[in-house]
């Protein structure tokens, strides 16, 4: 794995993981009690394979694997966990669904399961039971799981996205408080560039950072890809305003952000090349647990993205779900594994080990003490509650999944800000691609 500091969490996160795997193990949790879940009797001779994204928080991955090993110890079922880069999970899962071979389960992104719902095992019984047991699913996440009345996957978590910035650089630029609106935010970006401490946001095919940024750019101005009826309305005055604002912001960025993937903003921030970006809390922990970066860690502030002319927060937030492929030879074993991972003690261990990087999908787990353990986590604590689904304001489904998977919005902004296309042509091209997906 070539992911450097973003995967390395020791110190604070390691302590959290140790407490989670040790102190809570074997005793009921005070913040989400164990509940009766359906019993699934695994098939004889079962073994399983899970495809998941590479952990950007080392302790999170370690906790997931430890809980998986506990499942194997209890059931005798071996579970192989394959880790792939964030960008590779989507195509590998799509290929597995298409050919009917490969991993039995996948930890996928956003509404990817809607690209192949007929290839997935119905998990409605477990989905309803988990919701009943643990306070209900968050509405935004539930939309990523249900097709009609059926669960085609289980929402696992939201990876919150917030602005991470160097407090001293922002203060030096003349801002005692972080701007709450887009006009003030642009002023800050221009001031940061002027003093030689620029910002940087991904305009490349970054699964999380690129999509989160592009959707906020559009939605904060009141633009949207489709309306409530699922009709494409991307070519609008609001979209034009969003693109024009993005072009001004891009002029203040460090060069090269049009090719950034999910790792690049972390590297640039930790190397001191940028002083402001948007990311999960992993960026803070990477600095906090590197002895050579204590000064940077102590200078990091986090805040939610500013509010635009639309007048309310409009943030995408990255979601991940768990699905079982129909080609799985041991579907009952797979169901038993998912139920095991969602049991209260296990889910709480995993959330604590993730140190705020993963926001729970079930409401009862909001009581986990991780969220009050560090003020830096405040912008991430409500990610599942406040997220806007990527299909906004239409329904989620194959069309919204295709628009997301094809980076339609990201490409629109990238083409315009780099001058590859005029604002009008970039929007028209994106609208045409969206219409092909929605077939309108």
From TrEMBL:
Keywords: Periplasm, Signal, Transport. It is found in: Periplasm. It comes from the Bacteria. Gene3D superfamilies: Periplasmic binding protein-like II. Residues 1-32 form the signal peptide. SUPFAM superfamilies: Periplasmic binding protein-like II. GO terms for cellular component: periplasmic space. The keyword Signal applies. Its main location: periplasm. Transmembrane segments: none annotated. Belongs to the bacterial solute-binding protein 1 family. This is Carbohydrate ABC transporter substrate-binding protein. The lineage of its organism: Bacteria, Pseudomonadati, Pseudomonadota, Alphaproteobacteria, Hyphomicrobiales.
